[in-house]
User: Which sequence fits this backbone?
């Protein structure tokens, strides 16, 4: 219908214009009223005029800024965000940012030009401090959340990897003799902060229990580096390996060396039905996404920055 508006929806649904506004902006509307409004919206194929909403000053959407070539599990987090947002009738839009600092900030500026209600930032692996500086100093007209970081200048959430790898190493140590060495496999694609968080828990347990340890770095993106890594493990008779990422775990599984004792990390995968690992850090990324949206709603009513650690993590053991 031409020039169909909130006023027309309100008249046909026998509600006030403010009720229709709440329907579109995530406010409270009873189930019966919501269903009545939705029926009218569907019947007349109505969709809010985005340009008009910008003129009024803001948009109700949540933009998710994702770096290019992000880990696969980021999609599970985004799904959790989107499904939780749907409960509040909030739309989510994912936009991919370039890998370098200039392109990432250019994407941030573009997103802010839409005047969204909220923006969730997934940090790139490089230039994280510069990106955080920009967000903290320039993004103040909408609700924000940054992952993964613990920087208290911004609303933030991060997985407690230090505790997770401490608990993982605790479980894994029960499969080896005390005089055996454990290697920590560092995936080079991780940022410096991510590498430190994951290795700190491993190193602390080894120090406390007098376990010999070493670190090995691998670049899973390079075929030559991967081959060199496998050869190093084989030549040095290293059999106990704690993996910092799921990708480094897959690299070792692909070597088909059945003498290796491995750990995995991540969400559900085909390897959960095989005996390829001794222990695994299981992370419910979907639940993490749900919690991220909740932080957005909480921060809308808070005068201080919110800092959360995601601790819904369990250690799975295999025989």
Assistant:
């Amino acid at each position: 219908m031409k020039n169909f508006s909130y006023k027309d929806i309100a008249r046909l649904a026998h509600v006030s214009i403010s009720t229709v506004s709440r329907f579109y902006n995530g406010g409270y509307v009873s189930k019966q009223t919501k269903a009545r409004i939705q029926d009218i919206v569907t019947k007349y194929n109505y969709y809010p005029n985005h340009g008009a909403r910008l003129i009024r000053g803001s948009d109700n959407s949540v933009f998710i800024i994702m770096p290019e070539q992000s880990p696969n599990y980021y999609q599970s987090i985004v799904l959790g965000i989107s499904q939780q947002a749907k409960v509040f009738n909030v739309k989510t839009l994912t936009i991919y940012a370039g890998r370098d600092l200039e392109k990432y900030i250019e994407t941030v500026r573009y997103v802010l030009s839409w005047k969204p209600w909220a923006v969730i930032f997934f940090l790139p692996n490089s230039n994280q401090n510069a990106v955080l500086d920009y967000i903290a100093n320039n993004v103040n007209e909408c609700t924000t959340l940054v992952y993964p970081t613990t920087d208290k200048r911004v609303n933030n959430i991060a997985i407690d990897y230090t505790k997770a790898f401490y608990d993982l190493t605790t479980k894994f140590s029960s499969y080896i003799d005390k005089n055996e060495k454990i290697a920590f496999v560092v995936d080079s694609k991780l940022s410096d902060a991510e590498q430190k968080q994951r290795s700190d828990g491993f190193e602390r347990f080894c120090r406390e229990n007098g376990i010999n340890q070493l670190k090995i770095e691998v670049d899973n993106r390079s075929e030559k580096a991967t081959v060199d890594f496998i050869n190093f493990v084989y030549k040095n008779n290293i059999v106990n390996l704690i993996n910092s990422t799921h990708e480094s775990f897959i690299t070792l599984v692909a070597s088909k060396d059945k003498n290796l004792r491995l750990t995995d990390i991540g969400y559900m995968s085909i390897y959960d039905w095989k005996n390829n690992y001794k222990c695994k850090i299981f992370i419910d990324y979907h639940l993490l996404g749900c919690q991220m949206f909740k932080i957005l709603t909480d921060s809308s009513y808070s005068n201080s920055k919110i800092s959360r650690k995601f601790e819904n993590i369990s250690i799975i053991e295999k025989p």
